[in-house]
Amino acid sequence: ILIDGGTTTFYLAEELLGRPLQLVTNSLPIANLFLNDDHVELILTGGLMYPRYGVLLGPGAESMLANIHTKTLFLSVAGIHDGRMYNQNLLLVQSERRMMEQAQQVVLLADSTKFGQQALAQLGKLDEIDIVVTDPGLSDAHREQVRAAGCELIVAA
Fold first, then answer.
1. Segments of 1-144 assigned E as strands
2. CB within 8 A of 28, min separation 6: which ones?
C-alpha cells in the first residue's frame, strides 16, 4: 500500500501496526511508526523534506514514485469543493498526483469538515477517487456529490 502524509492518514497508519504489509510512504511520522515493526517492509520515497508536514516532496520523491506500483493509495486532502479536491502545497499536490497514477485503487480519507472547503492547489476531481471514507457528519448533499462522482462511500463510526 501507499500512504500519503497527513494527520488523517497517520491515524489510519496507527491502525495498521502489527499487520504484515509492504508499505510505501512519503511521510516521516508514518515511517517512524513502523521502524521497529518486523511485519512491515517499509519503503520511503526520498526527496526534499517539507518540515511543516513532515513529508518528502519534489523531484526525488516523484522519481521514486514513478518506479513503483501499488495496489492501494490512501490519501487525504485539505478540502473538497464542487467535485474538486485541494491541498495546501503545490509540491504536495504534484507528488499526490503521481501517487494517484501509480495505484490501482485510490482511497480518500476525508472527515466531513473538509467538504465545502478549498485550498491553494487543486489536486484533481473527485471522480478520480475509487472510495471515500468519511464520518457520519457528512451532509446529505455532500454524500450525493460523492456518489454522483462514481465513488464508493464508506461512513466510519
1. 2-3, 21-25, 40-44, 48-50, 55-57, 70-75, 79-81, 84-87, 103-109, 121-125, 131-134
2. 5, 49, 54, 55, 56
Which grid coordinates are listed for 100? 494517484
Cell numbers standing for residue 122: 487543486
What is the pTM (predicted TM-score) of this model? 0.96
Q: What count of other Cβ atoms lies within 10 Å of the Cβ of residue 26?
A: 30
**Half-sphere exposure in the Cβ direction for 93 (13 Å, CA):** 16
Q: pLDDT tens-digit profile of 69-119?
A: 999 999 999 999 999 999 999 999 999 999 999 999 999 999 999 999 999
Q: How far apart are CA 119 and CA 139, in angstroms?
A: 20
Cell numbers given for 123:
489536486
57 in Cβ contact with 50 (< 8 Å): yes
C-alpha cell recorded at residue 30:
508514518
How far is Cα of residue 11 from the mean position of the Cα atoms in its chain?
A: 12
Element containing residue 155 per DSSP (H, E) = strand 152-155
For residue 52, what is its C-alpha cell? 511543516
Distance CA 113, CA 154 (A): 16
What is the torsion angle, in degrees rounded to the nearest 10, for the CA atoms of residue 14, residue 79, residue 60 and residue 13? 10
